[in-house]
Amino acid sequence: MRRLFPHAATADDEGLTLREYYDVPRPRPVDRPWVALCMVTGLDGSTVMGGTSRALSNPVDQELLLTLRTLVDVVLVGAETARKEGYGPPRTPNLRVAVVSRTGNFDFSQPIWQSDRSLLVLPEDAPEVPVPSIRAGRGGVDLAAALAQLDADVVQAEGGASLNGLLAAADLIDELNLTISPQLTGGDGPRLTLGAPPLSSRMTLAHVLEDDGFLFTRYVRAR
Within the chain, which residues score under 50 in pLDDT? Predict the structure, then answer.
C-alpha cells in the first residue's frame, strides 16, 4: 500500500495502516448522521461482476471494508445486496446493520435476523415485520427521514447501486470511499448511482492509495 495523493508517501508514512489513513473527523450534520458510501467498481464503472462485487475486490479492499466498519455506527445496505452478498449479524462490536426494503419480504430465519443489532428500514405502509424497524415515507423509503431516526453519528452505505442512487438523489452522500478495480468488466452491470436523476454534487478528493493496481480513493462533499 502506498499513498499517491495528496502527496506521495514518504519514509515517515511507511507502515501506516488502513485505519490510520481512514480514521479522520466525520462531523455529524445537524439533522442526520454523516453518510459515507463505500463501493468498488471496475474500470468501466460496473459495481458487479458475475452478479456480486466480490470478483472486483482484492484482499486490501476487503480489509478496508472491515476497517471502515470499525469507524462507523451503522451499516446501511439495500435488501437485494444483503441477500446476494450474504450479509450476516454484525461482527464488529456495537455496529448495527440497517437493511433498506420497500416490502420487508425476507426469510426471517436467516442469521442476520437472529441478531438484536439488525433492523429494517421500511416505508410507513409496508407490512408488519417480526424484527426491529424504522419507518419513513409511503410507497418507498424516505431515506432522509429514516436516517434522522437513527441513533448514530456515522453511517456507512454499502450499496447496491439502487440504494446509492436514492442517497444521491436526496443529497445525502457526505463521503465516497471508492475502490477502482483494474478490471474491464463489460456487460450491463449497474453503475454507481443507478436510478439517480441528473444532478451535480461536487466532491473533493481527499486521498488516493494504491496496491497491486487497485486505487483506493476517498472523496468528501465539497463545502
Answer: none
